[in-house]
Amino acid sequence: MLGTFVALPCRKNQNAKTRRVKMSVLKLNPNDNVVLATSELKKGETVVVDGKEIVLLDDIPNAHKIAIKDFAEGEEVIKYDNVIGYAKTAIKPGEWVH
After folding, report:
1. Where is 21: in which H helix or E strand?
2. Listed residue (47, 62, 51, 61) closest to 93, CA to CA
3. Stretch 87-95: mean pLDDT, rounded?
4. Is the dihedral angle over the CA atoms 54, 60, 66, 67 positive or is it negative?
5. For residue 17, what is the DSSP state?
6. DSSP secondary structure string, 30-50?
7. Which residues does residue 33 pair with via DSSP β-bridges, in sequence order?
8. What's the rounded mean pLDDT across residues 83-90?
């Protein structure tokens, strides 16, 4: 099921219980500068991408893109390691890219 995985205990701590962790975003390629929401996300929520916390600046619909870096006007938006468009205006990390 997309968006959920089971985190197994590490070997050093065999007594740890398995826990369910909900993934809220998905980075499709290491070179991407946007991620996809795996469910509806609300403004003010925090997501973690590449170990960095990003506070959402907009409500994000399911399967929509979120900026993970600052974009200048005209800068390439990259998803699947491909340019899928260009920023019409400056975009901040945590903003809905649409």
Report:
1. strand 19-22
2. 47
3. 97
4. negative
5. P
6. TT-SEEEESS-B-TT-EEEET
7. none
8. 96
Q: Is the dihedral of CA 49, 54, 57, 62 positive or negative?
A: positive
Q: What is the token pair recorded at 42? A: 């609300």
- How distant, in Å, are the alpha carbons of 69, 70, 78 from that of 84? 16, 17, 6
At 14-66, the pLDDT tens digits run 444 544 445 799 999 999 999 999 999 999 999 999 999 999 999 999 999 99
| 3-state SS class at 91 | strand
- Compute, in degrees rounded to 10, the torsion defined by CA atoms 42, 43, 48, 49: 100
Q: What is the DSSP string of 63-75?
A: T-EEE-S-B-TTP
